Amino acid sequence: MPVIKFIDLGTGNIANSAIASGINSDGTWIEAPAPYFGFVYSGQYVALVYNVKEDGSLFAIGGDWLDIYGNDPPPPPPTDPCPPYNPYEEGLPCEYNNY
In terms of residue numbers, what domain contains 49? Predict the structure, then answer.
């Protein structure tokens, strides 16, 4: 049976995969159990469909785009408002850094 890999277009990483449970003879539809996507962040993904060759290698035969939403990534950490300490440069002392 064909294998479906879901790839995160932002990172290029495989987000999940599934093995097809049904496919028709003319290749116009495929059926597979829906994998769990609760841990992936909102963004664009691609579902690539592969046939499995006799030697176990994969051969891409099709795909489609997916937009997943509802789980935005956390915001980045705040930037440090204090410049790094440089003994050769005058600057205002920062209450958060103990020089």
Answer: 3-68
Residue 3 has a CB neighbour count (10 Å cut-off) of 15
CA distance 76 to 67: 22
Residue 94: inside a domain:
no
Query: Each residue's pLDDT tens digit in the chain (99 positions)?
Result: 899 999 999 999 999 999 999 988 887 899 999 899 998 999 999 999 999 999 999 999 999 999 999 999 899 888 766 766 666 766 566 655 555
pTM for the complete prediction? 0.71
In a domain, 97, yes or no: no
Q: How far is CA 81 from the centre of its chain?
A: 31
| Residues contacting 11, CB < 8 A, separation 6+ | none
Q: Are 47 and 6 in contact (CB under 8 A)?
A: yes
